[in-house]
Amino acid sequence: MTQDKQSLTSSPLPLDQVIQGDCFEVLASLPQESVDLIFADPPYNLQLAQELWRPNLTLVDAVNDDWDQFSSFTEYDRFTQAWLAACRRVLKPTGAIWVIGTYHNIYRVGTILQNLGYWILNDIVWIKTNPMPNFRGVRFTNAHETLLWAQKERKSHYTFNHHAMKSLNGDLQMRSDWIIPICVGKERLRINGQKAHPTQKPEALLYRVILSSTKPGDIVLDPFFGTGTTGAVAKRLHRHWIGIERNPDYVQLSRQRIAAIPENHAKTVVFVLPNPRRLKRIPFGRLVEDRLLEPGQRLFFDNKDNINATILSDGSVEYNGLRGSIHQVARAIREGPCNGWEIWYYQDSQSGLRHPVDFLRQQVRHGIDPEDKG
């Protein structure tokens, strides 16, 4: 479903729609504190003074559109201040914003973000594996862009799906340098063989932004919607979205692009990102009380036979005269941070197989009878 600026009064919050209009006017018409996340890819103010040519004398398809033209830094700053203030009004107190840019504008954007009261959480460097070279050979190849991630109110409870991002990154904590190719191939929208939009962002980049900072059903707004990458990814991830775009050609392309994405009827649980820190706490001693483990039984550190500890009746463990919780003893052995639930293994008396003790914790947490083999 889509609608234009004129019909906004019929719906207080136009979910899953591309709205054609000026972002200032449209943002002013939206309810206050109604949006969970904003992703903004504003004009970069590239200040290109001349055409760019490749060594083979072909013209570079650079960004020279009217929407990226500003007469001065002062004019650009006023523009940035206005749209960031308008975004702040519609963000929920727990909401956050992502803004992407280059060295041309991102430092000015960051200053204005802070002046408006946003609290910057991270700057992410998007490292392009296939950047456009500097054809004149007078500067380094500009091979990255910067994303600023900021919350509306400092110390508010913003959404960050740390464990999901760690899982996405091969069970390693995701860093602030993201290596992702620029938008090419079938993903790049073209009209008569030419790029439909000069700065179309890859969906992989938006996938990380939206997955990390929202929950299923949250509302993601993009005030510079372009050809709709934000909406396309949000739809695939079961998030609501609102796109604002003043260029009618981009509006039409984005509507067609998102409409072509099949409705995802997978169960909502597929998109829910569990946070272990919010699960019901189960002490290790509970496993002893419930006789899932027995006093005197051995636990194997990292599933190794040569390092094992003895379970004591009070739920602590003992290893080489050291007595403490499964976490304390594990940290002493490894001499660093580690999770006792995942590092200690017990041996099943019937099958002889070894499992992390967390396997038993999950059974207790979800009320599963370990004797029930059905």
Gross morphology is elongated
Counting DSSP H or I runs of 4 or more residues, the number of helices is: 11
- Secondary-structure-derived class: alpha/beta
Helix and strand sequence: EEHEHEHEEHEEEHEHEHHEEEEHHEEH
Q: Approximately how much helix is present in the residues?
A: 25-40%
Proportion of β residues?
15-25%
The radius of gyration computed from the alpha-carbon positions, rounded to a whole number of angstroms, is 26 Å
First and last CA, distance: 46 Å
Mean pLDDT level? 87
Strand line-up across the major sheet: 1-2-11-10-3-4-6-5-7
The largest β sheet comes out as: 9 strands, mixed
Unreliable stretches? 5-10, 49-60
Instruction: Give the tally of β-strands.
Output: 17
How is this structure best described in words?
With 374 residues, the protein is of the alpha/beta class. Helices cover 27% and strands 21% of the residues. It has eleven helices and 17 strands. Helix 1 packs parallel to helix 2 (73-90). The longest helix is centred in the first third of the chain and has 18 residues, at 73-90. Residues 5-10 and 49-60 have low confidence and may be disordered.
